[in-house]
Structure formats: structure tokens, C-alpha cells
Task: structure prediction
Amino acid sequence: MKIKSFYNAVFGIGTEIFYAVVIILAAFLICIAAYFFNYDS
Amino acid sequence: MILKPQLQDLKNIGYYSGKIIIGVGLTMLVPAVIGLLFAEINPALDFLIATEITSIIGLILTKLCFTEEDLNWMQGMIVVSLSWVAAMLLGAIPLYLSGHWGSYLDACFDVMSGFTTTGLTLVQDLDHISYAHNLWRHFTPFLGGQGIVVIALCFFVKGVSGAFKMYVGEARDERLLPNVIDTSRFIWLVSIVYLILSTLVLGIVGIANGMKTANAFFHGACIFMAAFDTAGFAPQSQNILYYHSLLFEVITIVIMFLGAMNFNLHYHLWTGNRREIWKNIESRALCITLLFTFLITLIGLNQVGSYPRAVIMFRKGFYQLISGHTTTGYMTIYARQFINDWGALALAGLICAMAFGGGSCSTAGGIKMLRLGIIVKALQQDLKRIVSPEPAIVEQRLHHLKEIFLEDKQVRAALLITLAYLVLYGIGALVGMFYGYPFLDSLFESTSAAANVGLSCGITTPGMPAGLKLTYIVQMWAGRLEFMSVFTLIGFFIAAIKGR
Amino acid sequence: MKTAISLIFFCWTVCYAQHISSTELINKAKEYDGKSVVYAGEVIGDVMVRGDFAWINLNDGQNAIGIWLDKELAKEIKFTGSYQAKGDRLEIAGVFHCSCIQHGGDMDIHAQNLRKISPGKLVKEQLHTGKRNFTIILFGILFLVLIFVRHQSSFGDKVKLPQE
Result:
């Protein structure tokens, strides 16, 4: 039970960090898209 | 009929306030020890003096007001609001003794800014401050973000039903675990685990960036405490710009996110319910508001042409926006650049992001995602009612840790607190304009204070008028406690004067 | 001869007196963008060496600005400002960037020349006897209060009330 709790916590931390990283990447892609949109116009 | 407060009310309030004050006094031993470790004798003495004064006051209060009675709602709320003021006044002692703050009011401002996890600062010559004082600056958000009352609940109070009333008074209305004491301890567990992980990661990155080892880990711990508690204090005067490091900035963004998440969401994710992160209304609301405000800011920044490259737009545009939305307040630009380089549209997007805030029951401030989600769902429900046949019963559901049917009393509560925040933002802006600052600057700074953000456009300086300092102190305090305990305190004083 | 000396002295004061302040750089960043400036301040924090170059931050008393300089120039820095030391006071001549493309938009100065105006030094801390005495007096008062509290009731009892 304690090992399961430990693994749940580790994967939980991983999920949270993954969520943050996804948002960071999405923001970066939006910045790139905005740059190209500006560059083209 | 308003009833005058009774002696028992005062005793209950005094006793529990005394307990919390003792707790705050003991926490000041941590920077005292750090001062001794780094051979900073005078700073260590500053903290010993503060600990002694605080402990004396706390002990006398608990002795004079000793009681075995339980707290009622009014008393619980007042204990919270009063003990935050007491913590500010006593926590300012070591800062004022350091000589880095121009006045006791300035020291109180920074301590309230720390405890409320705001991050606005009036410190002078920060680059020459001692490790001890710098640690206390970063420790106050770590304590305040988790909740000063929460600390007391962990250590000083056992199995108290009144504890829940204090817990709620500190703007935590979600119980993670059946016992509020266990809830408090879980909150600390999350904080300590991330403290260890983040300090290691930031320390290693700091060393790779060329910092000395001791500084790298000290900065790492301080940056974590201020980022996870969405405070925004940094060990150096340039804030995050000091490090000149993209990797450092990315790591702080991750930590800011973690801090802006509902602690209940942490609990669900840590106990195996990982789908909650996609289903939760707050996660979804944050994604939507972040996208919306980022697009506004992006368009505004493109119009003024300040950040001509994608990487620059990310490191200067998005960074400030995410810092504002999570109500952290970390900056990679100088304060006046908001006014000089951003333009009105980009600033409007940022102000909206700050106003919205982060997750409820997190370390973040602002209106909060759950309230915004409830308001939007209520609007959806009303629209459905209009288009549905008259006899139809329209139910609205939302998912927040579990499926909830939206009730009118929830909508009313969400709308009232949202309105209170908007009024607070407005009042602070009016006071700023009264002192001669332009409208947008005043609104920016007021929103930053009341939503406990900490981004500054240059108004918050040691030279700003004392009246404005007091205004921002009250805004930070009321915003952090989400009004109820502050209103209860005001009501208490009115009852004391006018009651029968 | 006297005229020549006066002329040299005049040129020297003009060249070395024109330090621009950090506040002016921040407030008029676009005006100074890409231009050569002379900036002076105290080195604070760490000298962060990154490959062949290094970052330092110079504080002129108003703000600190990041300076990107050659590693060899950075070797001249002996003291950096902190609680226990006063940092070297440097004069940097270089190109100012409002939003440096090379460095992710940071406001910085790429140094071309460095001159040490005054060296830093360690700051020896003097024990504040007033604070020391006050600490001892307060400790005495705290001790008395603790005895008083313990004597009257058992301090440290957690409040036992009905479980929730």
C-alpha cells in the first residue's frame, strides 16, 4: 500500500510538471506563430 | 439588534491569537540560525530580539486569555484577521532593525507583502542584504502561502472544531482530508517535497550558470519559496533578470504553475486520480483565461514592436503574463518598462490576467479560477433556461474534484466575492490617482496589490506616499483573506462601539 | 605647455565624467538602443562565467544592469558586492541594448572596455553592542514570563476539545 502511495505521488508530480511544460510549449509555439504572422505581413 | 462583544469573545480571540503569535515567533528562529551559520552576528541578533518580543507577547496573551472554550465562526474569523496584522507588526521588527527599510511602515509593508504572497517591495540596497534577512523575506511567503493559521493548526492545536473556522477564515474552504489538521499537514508535505526537489534543480542550474555553490543553493531555496507561494520576492534587486538564464526562467514558470494549483488538486493527483487535471474546471478555466489574456498581450506587444523575436516575446511577454496570471510577480524586465515598452493594450491584457488570478485553495491570489468557472457556468445555465420550454428544469453541472450541481447560493457567493475584488481593485486605483499617478499605472499597481501579484510598474518605491503604502497594505491583507475575516473584524469593532 | 596640460585635463574629465545612470538607460532605452555608452557601478552578486564570456551585474545605486563581457575582462574583478563585501567599482564602455536579441531580450550592455575605478574590500562586521544588550535583557524577561506561565498552568498542553 505504501509503495503504491509512493508511485502515485511520483506519477502525480510528473503529471503536474507535464501539464506545466505543455502550457510552456504551447505558449512558445504561439510566439513563433505570431512572429511568422508579423514577418509575413 | 447588534450584540456587544463579551469578555469570553475577547478571551477566545486573545488565546488563539497568542498561540499563532508564538508560532510566528518560533519561525523567526530559522533566519537567526542562518545568520549564525553565515557569521552574520548583527542580523542574528535582529531575529533573536524579534523572536523574544514575539514570544513574550504571545505567552502573555495565552496566559491572560486562557480558555478551553471552542471558537465560534465570528471568533475564528477575527483570530485570523487579527493574527495576520500582529504577524505583520512583529515580523517587521527584524527587517526594520537591519536598516534596509526606510521606516517601520516600509518594513511592515514588506512583511505583509510576504505573508500575503504579494511580492511588492520597499527594500533598499537589496544587493547588500544579509542571508538571514533575505531568507526571512522569502520565508514569509512560504509561511503565509500555506497559511499562518495552518502552521498553528499543525503544531499547537489538536482536534479542534474551531480550527476549521480559522482555516476557512484564512481563505481555505476545502478540506482535503477529513481532519483539518491532516489537511494542513498534507499542504506542508507538498510544499516540503517540492522545496527539496526545486532547490536541488535550481541549485544545479545556478552552478551551471556560473554562480558560487552556496549562492546557487541559497538562491534556489529562496526562489522556490517565492515562486511556489506565488510571491515574487527574489534575492537580488533585478529580480529574475539577475540570472540571465532561459532555463532558470522556464523552471520558475513550472514552479509558479505548481503553486497556483489548488492543493486539493495536488491531493487528487498525488493519490492516483491523474485524470482530474484535465477534467477539473479550474485547470480548464486557467487554460482558457491564459490563452485569452496572452492573445491580447501578444497583439498589444506586436503593435508597439517591443519584442521582435519569438524567444524574446516568450521570455519578456509570456513570462510577465504567466507571472501575473499565477499572481507570482516575478519579472524579467524593469518596472518602468511596463509603461515605456508595453503599450495600453498589452497592459490591459496583463491587468486582466492579474485580476483573474490562480486556483482556489492555492497560494495564488486574485478572483480565482473556480469563481470564474462558476460564473460562466451560471451564465450558461441562464441561457439554457431562456431557450428551454418554460416548465423545463435546467440543471447545470461542473466538475471540481467531483461532479457538482450548480446551486444559486454558490453562484451568489462567487459573484459577491468577485464584486468585492473588483471594487478593491477600483478603490486602490482611485487612491493612486488621488496621489497623482496616471490611471493605467494606478490600476495596474492596485490590481497587483489586491490580487497579491507583485508586478510593479514603478509606483511601489520607498518614496511613495505613506497613504498609498497603507492602502496597498490593506489591499494585500483583504485580498489574501478573501474579505470575510476582514469584514468580520470590522463588524466586531462596530459591534463593540454600537452594540447593546 | 600650460595650455596643453589644461587641454589634456579637460578631455580626460569630459571622457571620464559622462557616466550614464541606470535610470536614464531604463527610461530612455529606445533612444540609447544600439549606442555606445559609458556606465559605472559596483559589481554585485556573482561573476557568472559562461563559456568564453561572463555576466556581471553593475549597480550604480539606483538599479543594477547586466553586463556581458569577455571572460578575460571579468578576471580583473576581485570583489563582488554582498553583505560581507563591497564590490569593485567598475566603469564599462560598451553597446547598450534595450532588448538584446542575442540574450533573449534582456536589457544589457555588451562591454568593450573595462576600467576599475576603485577596488572593493571585505566589510568587517562590528558587533552592535546595543542589540546584544537588548537581546540579553529580553531573554531575561522571556525567561521570567516562561516561569510565570509554567507556574500558573501547564504550558504546552494542546487544547483538547471534541473531535470534528
